[in-house]
Amino acid sequence: MSAPIDKTFIREYDKNDGNVLKIHQSEIGDVGCVVWDAALVLSKYLEKQNDEKKLDLSRKTVIELGAGTGVVSLVAGSLGAKVTITDLPEFLPLISLNIQENKALLTGEIKAETLIWGQVSDVMKKTEWDLILLADCIYYEESLEPLVRTMVELCGPRTTILCCYEQRDTGNKPELEKQFFELVRKNFEVSKIPLEDQDNEMSSADIHILLFTQRIVHS
User: Is 0.70 surpassed by the pTM of this model?
Assistant: First the structure.
């Protein structure tokens, strides 16, 4: 289901520098139509890393997969990154609305593009991405393999992937997480960002931030 932009409500995101991003959410739609907690946790982590001079996003090439409302990308864009926000075509109107709404705070270049996992364009493959962002993308079993394949196709030797997800114990979610990380570890080195390195207020024991880097294959 698409994200209608004629019926939206705004969630304000208070940045550490005192500015406020206004994020439109859709009253009707699928999982991509609202701001999820994992997106907020990842956004605040980016801000903290920037504030502590541990991660300089200025002019870095960033792509977000399954961006939904685009809040994580908008935070990165407000920190000077050159961001490509991607999701299924039905979510692009909502993402574009949020870009327009927050244009005054976006110091980096930012654009929205369709990306169906497993169908990466040659232009995206050839781009040297510094950072790939994912927030709460472990949701549907049929999307796991295409998602990991997309990550592999976009990732270069200097690319860092930050994956934030909320651990869920209901239904098939534990099995989905297991399958996802089995696929990830075949291609990437995985490390966990400790809670003490995350935002003091916007963090949680059941929301994890993981860092993936390309696995070096020795001949």
Answer: yes
